[in-house]
Specification:
The structure is a single chain. The protein is of the alpha/beta class. The protein is built from six helices and eleven strands. The strands form three sheets. It has a five-stranded parallel β-sheet with strand order 8-9-10-5-11, with helices on both faces. The chain is globular, with a radius of gyration of 17 Å.
């Protein structure tokens, strides 16, 4: 939330009304009535396969809901599902990177769609994710930990009011996890952060815990 002439330039809110998702005959979740606001963070918890990622994907319109509504607003103005994309960055295990690109090409490609905060350059971003010595290496030769650091870096440093992180520390070592927690502190205070996790170390700072099993 940047202040411009005394006005907030964004205060995103997502509101779920009686949201439900069914696969074949089984309800993954039902009657979800929740709201998420900028300046707060939220974590969806529950065992693997409980529907955390499904809820996240319905929430951003990637997957259609079976019933109910998802409403997006910015300072009380309605934002359409087609425009919400511009306001979201996501880092998730199921989102693929372009394996043929080098690291610098990956970052420049992302930047065409989502500019970086404080107008930092692609090389500066690579420095911030501590991968400068690999900038000309092809992504397909990265370790899974390096790929995860890249995904998280692109999410944290993009100019977008909503950050979604699914299993954020998967494939990170303890040093990578410490880096992740540091970035959370630096980059999410004025944004809306939603995490899917079943690792308490990923969301120790989070006060709003949503257990997906409460909506079966």
């Amino acid at each position: 939330m940047t202040i411009l002439n005394g006005l907030w330039t964004h205060h995103m809110k997502i509101q779920l009304e009686n949201l439900g998702k069914k696969f074949r005959k089984e309800w993954i979740f039902r009657n979800v009535n929740l709201s998420f606001e900028a300046g707060n963070n939220y974590t969806f918890v529950g065992p693997n396969g409980s529907g955390k990622s499904t809820l996240l994907q319905v929430l951003i319109g990637v997957m259609p809901q079976t019933e109910g509504k998802v409403n997006y607003s910015n300072i009380n103005q309605v934002v359409s599902v087609d425009d919400i994309y511009k306001k979201i960055v996501i880092a998730a295990p199921y989102l693929e990177l372009v394996e043929e690109f080098t690291l610098i090409e990956s970052v420049e490609f992302h930047q065409k769609f989502k500019p970086f905060k404080d107008q930092i350059s692609a090389s500066e971003l690579i420095e911030k994710i501590q991968l400068s010595q690999h900038k000309d290496k092809t992504v397909k030769n990265f370790s899974s930990g390096m790929k995860q650091r890249l995904k998280l870096g692109l999410a944290f440093y993009s100019e977008a009011p909503i950050i979604l992180l699914d299993e954020p520390t998967s494939n990170l070592d303890s040093q990578g996890t410490a880096w992740y927690l540091e970035q959370i502190e630096k980059h999410t205070t004025d944004r809306l952060l939603i995490i899917c996790s079943n690792q308490p170390s990923e969301y120790t700072f989070c006060k709003n815990i949503v257990d997906i099993r409460d909506y079966k």
